[in-house]
Amino acid sequence: MIFQGVFFGLLAAASQAAAYVFSRHLLSTGGESKRLLVCSQILLGAISLPAVIFTGWWRLMNWKLLGVIIFSGAFFMFAQFFFFEALKRIESSKIASLVGLKTLVIALLMFLLFGKKFNICQLIALAMTAGAAVLMNYQRQNKAGKNRGGGWSGMGYLTLALFGYSFSDLGAYLTVELIPGGNTVERGLAGTAFNNIYLLLLCLPFAVKWKISLRETARSAAYSLSWGAGILFLYVCFGFIGAAFGTVVQAMRGPISFFLGIILASRGFSHLEQKLSIGGWIQRGAAALLMFAAIVLYALSD
User: Fold this and answer.
1) What distances in angstroms separate CA 222 from CA 24, 32, 263, one per listed residue?
2) What is the spatial distance between Cα 52 and Cα 216, in angstroms, rounded to a whole number?
3) Which of 10, 58, 230, 242 has the greatest number of C-beta atoms within 10 Å?
4) What confidence score (pLDDT) does residue 9 get?
């Protein structure tokens, strides 16, 4: 169970790390966050609709499950909007690790809402995850006295996104738990499809109002598909190892984005990643290693 959960959690981390790069590219080349959000959910919902119809998953729906899906989807939309706003101000390699702070929020919610207990090693691992996220974002002032880490506006938007994502992830965990029968992978697939269709229905009025075109939707395909794959893998991961541990594993998107950032910066994609000194990359590398160590510690103590 732990091996399968960690495996799908790592797939989720890799998919979302790629999605951050694609979304930052779109937003830094004139795209609007609200339109990207609508385009991505229209595409993912359109893919999920026939899957639900032809597999008969719609028979699994009940009022309790529907309520959880509505709860999770609403917080997800809230989080995505503010995340895109933060992504305009913070590089993808850095923001991927900052989202790792979500582990502390989810751990607190799991304790308050479900009475989950954490042993000392797990608490240390959670603290290490938060420390890695802070280390990844910390940046000394440059010669002009300015910090290029996203500023208070970027961190403010990201804080709102973190709380939205945390409640959404708890909803994803409950969705998989409430779907009857089948194996964990099948329940994860069904839960993801239900969520995508609900978000499709939410976004349709905005797509009509803003005259979203097929061309614009197609332009978001790389982001949409990588993000959608990440959500699917995350649902399955939560089904195997729960929301708290699953979020810790998902935080590996920070180290993955770190290596992507090195590649992008060396290739001259300055609109995606700023060039850093060797010291700056060493600092981010140390944060990535700390994040990896936290995951290993949590896994061994679970």
Assistant:
1) 12, 16, 19
2) 25
3) 230
4) 93
44/51 Cα distance (integer angstroms): 11
Query: pLDDT: is 242 or 283 the higher one?
Result: 242
H helices within 179-266, ranges in order? 184-209, 214-219, 221-250, 253-266
| Spatial distance between the Cα atoms of 149 and 42, rounded to a whole number of angstroms | 32
Residue 177 exposed, middle or buried by CB count within 10 Å (0-12, 13-18, 19+): middle
For tokens 């770190």, what's the residue? Answer: 258
3-class secondary-structure state, position 270:
coil
* Of the candidates 232, 238, 171, the residue with the CA atom closest to the CA atom of residue 196: 232
- Calpha distance 189→236 (Å, rounded): 8
- Token readout for 12 is 């989720």
Amino acid identity for residue 278 in this structure: I
Q: How far, in Å, CA of 34 to CA of 20, rounded?
A: 15
Side chain identity, residue 123: L
Q: Which residues have a Cβ under 8 Å from the Cβ of 75 and sit 6 or more positions away?
A: 164, 165, 167, 168, 171
Q: How far is residue 36's CA from residue 220's CA, in Å, rounded to a whole number?
A: 7
pTM for the whole structure: 0.82
Distance CA 283, CA 289 (A): 10
